[in-house]
Each structure stands twice: as structure tokens, then as C-alpha cells.
Design a protein that fits this description.
The structure holds 2 protein chains of 2 kinds. Helices cover 79% and strands 0% of the residues of chain A. By secondary structure, chain A is mainly α. In chain B, strand 1 (311-312) and strand 2 form a beta hairpin. The chains are: A mainly alpha, B mainly alpha. The A-B interface holds A 1, 4, 254, 257-258, 260-261, 263, 290-297, 300, 326, 329-330, 333-334 and B 117, 120-121, 124-125, 127-132, 135-136, 138-139, 142, 314.
Chain lengths: 422, 361
């Protein structure tokens, strides 16, 4: 009988622990409670509860820790300082999938704030366990692990290199092929964050065969997934001509042009960024884009957007026109110049105006014909007024001044020819 | 001597006189000399001049001839040079003509083919138009799809609402809230409610355990696997001797399907299955799935008080514990033994033996 009483005491204690950890996890969802929790010293308590016997308590403690660390970087640093990470990493390898999800959530919450914290995570050997989690059967675990890797790789090139060295890239490519949309999204964004730092990393991503799969998934109707895929492809293609050519060989044209008509603003922005990164390298690539009708699609897209979403499209027109006069003429006949002058006069932001002025300059600088085509749309007075206005930034003034000067010379050239000829 | 003296006396004047007489003559002499010199010089001069003139004339002739010779030589050279220049100019002009034509052709054809550029720009603008049209169609299609999806969602929502509000339907005695007698015609919701099926809570789906029947692993006796032709394919050999049995009988015997015993044919938990089936049949006759619940919630918090036999000071004792002592440490798995009642084989071989013992003749 005393045995029963003794057991009851233990049961009570377990119930109390469960309740405590569940309440803490719930309180941690609201930002106003977190300060109080922090002052009450919740970190050390949760740390001991992580080592609990009961799996549910462990999982809930990990979840609570993750939510706390997610809130701001002081708490994340506190997590690192309390030596919680090695324990998490060690138990990640052994436990069930709920615990793995919660632990990966903690790692992600810690790693997202700053490069030093991410370095701390890498130093305690979390990358290998995260990569092992990527091989798990449960898609939720894979998603959590991929998210953690993404936040680690996001900060700088060394951390991305560490992630790649742990062998994450082929597994991420496998994750992309899984049927769950959330997992695809996270894997695509992870590849995008890995590839954006340097050409070697982008080459690694391409060598793992990611480009073909990414290109196939452009047709997927989910908007967030498209957004991540387009961002991944643009990060890969921005580094060098070979990478851009490889992306083009995956037959993204003309499918990418349909993304320019999507309802979601970010999808349009990323699609025009991708086309810009491809077109900026060589005249041949620009010609490819023009032949596929990309210029018209981008011009329509510029017309339908407002604000920062227009910027990649404007820059793309500038890059295409800068390569050669035939391409500039192609931009002119696609009715690009009226659209650009509309952007120039409408947009309130300075950097967009500067970009539009630069693009107009690139179009008009080749021959007097081009200059005439630009001048006909009455952009010169606008450029002049921008140059003279005291409110525009220095960059804008410089760009508009240069373009105005060029345009004026060319326009005068063309008009002189017209007058003198007869 | 006198003369000497006279001479000596005059000697002093001799000198003077000599000097004066000479000097008187001097100017004349000088004059005459001068005149003679003048004449002579003049004459010499004339002579020399004549000579020089003569010489000049000769020299002029020589020089004339020499210069003309030189001139002709020079002229020849000049003519040659001029000819050469003229020929070269001609050649240059012709070469320029050829080069001009060629350069024009080359630039127009290879470097900057104006018509090709025009074609190209036309093609580009056509592609642009095509792409624009295609994209517009695509956008329109997406719009239509979205609208359709929205409409469908609305429909579903309305349907679900109608199903939930089904009890607001008007009866014969009492008009419902959507069918007020003061209205000319009922509200459209009324018709919706009439069409809707009453919503019942989802009952837990009865999982159909897929029963593996014996015929599944007896599939190898299908017609595909054994040839069941009545007549065997002819073999060219000499006929076997002797009376033969009827071929159909032989085949029946050879390809007899498996006739499992009762023990094998029926599943070992058939009692449980039979119970479930009975339960299912009874459930068919139920009007309502929910158990009868008391109306008030007074009884919800009441704890069940078990009977004395089943309860002890330390909580209810499970029925099994009264009979058997259990040692959970020795359990291999946490499932209990299955109560299996084997079937007996009294009649398994009835009618399947070759002997005709016991059959009614």
C-alpha cells in the first residue's frame, strides 16, 4: 500500500511537470509574456526538462524553447549559453519524430538571428544530425530540418559551405521531389539561400541536378512555391554565363512568362528578376530572351505592377538594350519606351526613377534613330526636371544628367540630319 | 770751262727747269696719255664687248640647245609620270568602284542586313503580340477558374449552412422563419432548406478489414496457369495401348481445385467476426446512432459507483485479476492471448474419398 502512495507521488510530479511545460509552451506564443518568462528564469528550467524521462515532456519543452528562441536574439543567445544545443543534437539522433521536429524548430529559431549564433550551431555538430533528419520518412521532420538548414545557410558563404560539406544538397534535391507542398517550398528556399552566396556554391547546387526539378515545378499552381523556385533559379543564374545557360537549357522559356501574369506580386517580381539575371550576361542570352517574346511580357508586367516590384523589370530592359542596337530597337518596337517614361514620371521612389532613367539612356544611346524614338515620347523635359530638382538623390541626379546629356546629343544629331538632308 | 761754270750756275735751275718743263708737259702728256688710254680702253672695251657678245651669242646657242635637250628629257619624264599617274588614277577609280560595290554588298548582307533586321524586328513584334495574347488568355483563364472556384466555394458554404439549419424548415402546421405567411412567396433560403439533406455528425468509419479469402492464394488454379483444354494437343507417337479412362474424368481429377478443410477455410476468429456481423445487422435497424443521453448535465460529473464485488479499497479490480496471477515482467508483448476455438474435423473428408462407402446406391 505504501507502494501505491509512493507511485501516486510520482504520478503527481509527472502531471505537474507536464502541465508546467504545456503552459509555458502556450504562454510563449504571446510576445507580452516572454519578458516575464525570461525574468522568471525559464531557460534553466526548460533545460532540465529537456532531459526528462517522459517523451511528451521532452517534446513540449523543446517546443517551448523553440518559441522562446524565435522571439528575439537575446533569448537565442541565452539558449546557446545554457549549453542546451549539445543535448538537443545528441537526442535528435535517437528520438521519435515529434521530438525531432521540435528540436529542429529550436535549431532553426536559434540560427535565424545572426551569423554568430548560426556558427555556434554548426560548432556543436548539429549539421550532421540535421542532414540525417533530412533522410527521415516523416515529411514534417524533413521540413523542419530543411528549414533549420536554410536559416543557417542564409547568413554568409562560410556557413553555406559548411552546410554543403555536410552533404545536404542531394538530400534537398530529393526533398524537392516529394509530394508535400510545404516540404517543396522549404527545400527550394534552402537551395536558393545556399546558391546565392558564390558561384561555387551555385555550381554545387546545379551539379546535384536541382535545376531540372526546379524548372519542372514552375508549373505548380501554388504561389509561394513558385516564388521560392523562381528565387532559387535566379540566385543560381546570376553568378556566371555558364550557370545562366544551364538554367536556360532547362527549358524555362516560355513557361516563365506565364509567371509574369500571376496574381501574386512576389511571383511577378521573382520572375522578372530571373529574366533579368539571365539577360544581363551576354548579347546571345538577351537575344534568346527577346526571341521568346520575353520583352513584351516584361513590359506588360511593369505596366501592371507598382513600386518595388517594377524594379527588376526596368533593369532587365536596360540590360537588354545595353548589349546591342538591334536589341535596343527590339525593345523600342515592343513599346518599351512609353512604359519606361510612365515609370519615370509616376514612381515616387528615387531608386526606381534612377533605374528608369538609366534604362532609357541605354536604349537611346546607340544611334540617332534610337535617340529620336526616345525623344519622341517627351521624356527629355522630365529627365531635365529630375536633374534640376533639389529633392532627387545624388545617384538619380547623376544618372539623369548623364542620360539627358547623351540623349540630347543624339537627338540633335538626328534632327540635324533630318533638316540638312533635303 | 765756262760752259761748265754756266752749267753749274744753271745747274740749280736745271733741275727746276727740267722739273718745270717736264711738269708743263705733264698735264699735256697726261691729257694725251689719258686720251690715248681712253681711246685705247674704249677700243679694247669695244673689242672685248664684241668678243663677249660673240661669246654670249655662242653660249646662248649652246645653252639653248642644251636646255632644250634637258627640257625634252624632262618632258619625257614628266609625260611618263603624268601617264603613269593617269593610269593609276584610272585603276584606283575602278578599284574604288569595285570595292564600293563589294563593301556595300558585304555590309548589307553580312554585317547589317537592313531587310533582315526589319524582318527580325517584325518577327519579334509578332512574337510579342502572340505572347501578349497568349498571356492575356492565360490570365483570363485563371480569372475564370478562380471565379468558378469562388462560386463553388460559395455554393458549398450555402449548402452546408442549409444543411445545418435544416431544422428551420417549415412544417405543415408551423411555417418556418423563411416562409412567413405575410410574404407573397417563400424566401429562397426556404427552397434551399427543402433541398438540403439534414446534417448528421460524422460517425467513425467502420474500417472494413480486407478479408483474405482462400481463393486469393488459390489463384494459381485459374485457367491461365493450367491448360484446361478437353483435348490434349496431338503428339505424334504411336498410340498407347489399353483401355483408357474418360479424358474429362482424368482432367477433373488432375486439376481438381483445392478443397480445404473446414479448419483452414474458416478464419480462426470466426466467432468474433460472427459477433461483429450480428452487431452490424442490429445496427442497421437503429434509427439513431447516438446513445440515449440524459437531458440534464447533472449526471455528467457523477462518478460511477461500482458494486462491492468489483471494488476494493484501492480501486476497482479487473475481472481477470481475480482468477489469474500475472507477471507483467515476463510478458513478451502487450497483447493478450486470443481465444481460439479450433474446428473439429469430423466431416471434413465426407464425400471426398474415392471409396463409395456409405453412399446411398
Amino acid at each position: 500500500m505504501s507502494q501505491r502512495q509512493v507511485l501516486q507521488v510520482f504520478e503527481q510530479y509527472q502531471k505537474a511537470r507536464t502541465q508546467f511545460v504545456q503552459m509555458v509552451a502556450e504562454l510563449a506564443t504571446r510576445p507580452q509574456n516572454i519578458e516575464t518568462l525570461q525574468n522568471a528564469g525559464v531557460m534553466s528550467l526548460l533545460r532540465t526538462l529537456l532531459l526528462d524521462v517522459v517523451p511528451t515532456i521532452q517534446q513540449t519543452a523543446a517546443l517551448a524553447l523553440g518559441r522562446l528562441a524565435n522571439y528575439n536574439d537575446d533569448l537565442a543567445e541565452a539558449v546557446v549559453k545554457c549549453d542546451i544545443l549539445p543535448q538537443l543534437v545528441y537526442s535528435l539522433a535517437e528520438q521519435n519524430r515529434f521530438y525531432k521536429k521540435a528540436a529542429a524548430f529550436v535549431l532553426r529559431a536559434v540560427g535565424k538571428h545572426s551569423p554568430q549564433l548560426a556558427q555556434a550551431i554548426v560548432d556543436c555538430g548539429a549539421l550532421d544530425t540535421l542532414v540525417i533528419c533530412l533522410e527521415d520518412f516523416d515529411p514534417g521532420v524533413k521540413e523542419a530540418a530543411a528549414w533549420a538548414l536554410r536559416y543557417i545557410a542564409r547568413h554568409n558563404a562560410e556557413l553555406s559551405q559548411a552546410v554543403v560539406d555536410a552533404g545536404a544538397v542531394p538530400l534537398l534535391v530529393l526533398c524537392i521531389q516529394e509530394p508535400e507542398i510545404a516540404l517543396k517550398r522549404i527545400a527550394a528556399s534552402a537551395l536558393s539561400d545556399i546558391a546565392k552566396h558564390s558561384p561555387e556554391l551555385a555550381q554545387t547546387v546545379v551539379d546535384a541536378g536541382a535545376v531540372a526539378h526546379l524548372a519542372q515545378m514552375i508549373l505548380n499552381p501554388d504561389a509561394k512555391l513558385k516564388h521560392q523556385i523562381l528565387s532559387a533559379l535566379s540566385q543560381v543564374s546570376k553568378h556566371s554565363v555558364d550557370l545562366a545557360e544551364m538554367v536556360v537549357e532547362a527549358e524555362i522559356f516560355p513557361v516563365v512568362l506565364t509567371c509574369l501574369k500571376d496574381k501574386d506580386e512576389y511571383v511577378k517580381k521573382n520572375a522578372s528578376t530571373l529574366i533579368r539575371e539571365i539577360a544581363k550576361h551576354t548579347p546571345e542570352l538577351s537575344q534568346l530572351v527577346v526571341n521568346a517574346g520575353g520583352v513584351a511580357a516584361v513590359i506588360d508586367c511593369i505596366g501592371s505592377c507598382k513600386g518595388n516590384t517594377r524594379l527588376p523589370g526596368i533593369m532587365m530592359l536596360g540590360y537588354v538594350a545595353a548589349h546591342s542596337e538591334n536589341l535596343a530597337m527590339a525593345v523600342i518596337i515592343s513599346k518599351g519606351v512609353p512604359q519606361l517614361s510612365v515609370c519615370l514620371s509616376e514612381e515616387p521612389e528615387d531608386h526606381i526613377k534612377a533605374a528608369a532613367a538609366w534604362a532609357l539612356g541605354q536604349i537611346g544611346r546607340h544611334t540617332p534613330e534610337h535617340a529620336r524614338a526616345v525623344a519622341v515620347t517627351n521624356t527629355l523635359p522630365v529627365l531635365l526636371s529630375l536633374y534640376m530638382s533639389t529633392e532627387s538623390s545624388e545617384d538619380l541626379q547623376v544618372k539623369t544628367g548623364v542620360q539627358w546629356h547623351n540623349q540630347l546629343i543624339e537627338a540633335l544629331n538626328s534632327w540635324a540630319q533630318v533638316i540638312l538632308l533635303p | 770751262m765756262a760752259t761748265l761754270a754756266r752749267l753749274q750756275a744753271r745747274s740749280s735751275t736745271v733741275g727746276n727747269q727740267y722739273y718745270f718743263r717736264n711738269s708743263v708737259v705733264d698735264p699735256f702728256r697726261k691729257k694725251e696719255n689719258d686720251a690715248a688710254v681712253k681711246i685705247q680702253s674704249w677700243f679694247r672695251g669695244c673689242q672685248v664687248r664684241a668678243y663677249i657678245r660673240h661669246l654670249n651669242r655662242i653660249v646662248t646657242i649652246i645653252q639653248k640647245w642644251w636646255r632644250s635637250f634637258l627640257g625634252r628629257k624632262q618632258y619625257q619624264l614628266t609625260v611618263q609620270v603624268a601617264y603613269y599617274t593617269m593610269m593609276m588614277n584610272l585603276y584606283n577609280a575602278m578599284a574604288v568602284r569595285i570595292q564600293r560595290r563589294w563593301r556595300g554588298y558585304r555590309v548589307r548582307k553580312y554585317l547589317f542586313n537592313y531587310y533582315y533586321l526589319k524582318e527580325y524586328l517584325k518577327v519579334v513584334s509578332e512574337t510579342n503580340d502572340a505572347i501578349r495574347k497568349a498571356l492575356e488568355e492565360f490570365a483570363e483563364m485563371k480569372e475564370r477558374e478562380e471565379k468558378k472556384a469562388n462560386l463553388e466555394r460559395e455554393e458549398k458554404k450555402r449548402d452546408y449552412q442549409a444543411r445545418k439549419m435544416h431544422y428551420l424548415l417549415s412544417t405543415k402546421q408551423i411555417p418556418g422563419i423563411y416562409n412567413s405567411p405575410f410574404r407573397k412567396e417563400p424566401d429562397p433560403w426556404e427552397l434551399q432548406l427543402q433541398k438540403a439533406k439534414p446534417l448528421t455528425h460524422r460517425r467513425p468509419k467502420v474500417k472494413q478489414k480486407d478479408s483474405t479469402s482462400l481463393t486469393d492464394w488459390l489463384a494459381c488454379t485459374s485457367t491461365r496457369s493450367f491448360p484446361r483444354s478437353e483435348i490434349l494437343p496431338p503428339i505424334n507417337r504411336k498410340q498407347c495401348q489399353g483401355p483408357f479412362r474418360d479424358i474429362t474424368e482424368v482432367l477433373e481429377q488432375r486439376y481438381r481445385p483445392l478443397e480445404p478443410t473446414l479448419r483452414v477455410a474458416e478464419p480462426i476468429d470466426e466467432l468474433k467476426l460472427a459477433r461483429e456481423e450480428l452487431r452490424r445487422e442490429e445496427w442497421l435497424q437503429n434509427v439513431n446512432d447516438n446513445m440515449f443521453l440524459p437531458f440534464s448535465s447533472y449526471h455528467k460529473n457523477e462518478k460511477y459507483i461500482p458494486s462491492m464485488h468489483l471494488s476494493s479499497k484501492y480501486g476497482p479490480v479487473s475481472y481477470k485479476e481475480q482468477f489469474r496471477s500475472e507477471n507483467p515482467k515476463k510478458w513478451i508483448c502487450n497483447k493478450d492471448f486470443q481465444t481460439v476455438l479450433p474446428s473439429f474435423e469430423l466431416f471434413s473428408k465426407y464425400g471426398k474419398l474415392y471409396s463409395k462407402a456409405g453412399q446411398i446406391v
